[in-house]
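User: I'm curious what two different proteins look like when written out as structure tokens. Can you demonstrate?

Assistant: Sure. I'll show them one after the other, since each token string lines up with its own sequence. Here's the first protein:
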Amino acid sequence: GREAAEAAEGVLAVHLYRRPGWRFEELRRGADRAGAVLAVGATRAEALARSAAAADLVRFRTVDAAQALAL
């Protein structure tokens, strides 16, 4: 994911803020996000489309917290 997103057309940066094992809670503010993609385009719409397409390439594998604690 990350490498493909970084290589996508118009993408300037891909930032992942979380490491494996991070416990996600409810998204309440920007600092709760898992990452960000910065992209450029000839228009605002193109830049948004490029960043969305790149973000779709990044995957986070998640498990239910209760199940993980039971392991």
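Here's a second, unrelated protein for contrast:
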Amino acid sequence: MQRFFDMNHRDQPSFSLITDHNKIINYGRNSPDSSHYRQHPIAFGVMSDGTAMIDRFDSRLRASSGSREFSIHNMNAERSANSVSLYTPQFVRERTGTNEYGVEVVVRGADRDAVQNFGFGEVIEGTVETVGSYGQPGNSRIPSTGFVLSGHGDGADHLRHLSPGDSVRIEASIDSKWRDAELMLGSGPQLVRNGQVDVSMDLNSWRAQQVTERAAVGVSRDGQEVFMVTTRNMNMLQLAEHMKNLGAHSALNFDGGGSLHSWVDKTIIYVL
């Protein structure tokens, strides 16, 4: 097992989609452009038949209330500009941790098990208790049988239309090829695709050219073999070529440096 953490928020693996039998452990987000590692949503997964896969995914979070519907951009992570974030009881803190520059809606009355185990293909629904105003203190407490919607900028505009007593429905979906995944770990960039070096980031960026600690996972054509690789002195292109030479039909970069740990049976066996 390996981790890719935002070192400014060490309790949040911000860029990594992580699922366990469709339950969303971490929703993650994409990088802003191709100079970063994760412009595209790509994951390593283990399917219900035991085979492994590396491929792109299309995940969606949607909120609806009456005839209104809008996108949710992140879940249980720091609120970003012009977005709506969803906070459930699975968040690492009891409160959202937001400032006054947004609007927050507290929703109660949802099924406790549903909000605790919210995942792809699932729906949670509750009733609006309070709707805050821009400039009021944020940092709402997350109810144990509900959730909080927190919006900034354009995202806040969607939430202003809600009123106490309104019913709100949240739905999470992912494309069909991933629906029977027992495990998903998002990362990037992709290194090998269809047996050929195909790096999904700008190889001229300093992040790609840096010779440093690297880690990657590769999968054979039939999905029966998985290659877990760590190295101390490679740039991104060299890592991609290395994974191809090992026989990977597809391969995905994981993080290097202090945020990568490998462990087996709850014992750390390697720190890169």
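A detail about the second structure: The first strand starts at residue 18 and ends at 20.
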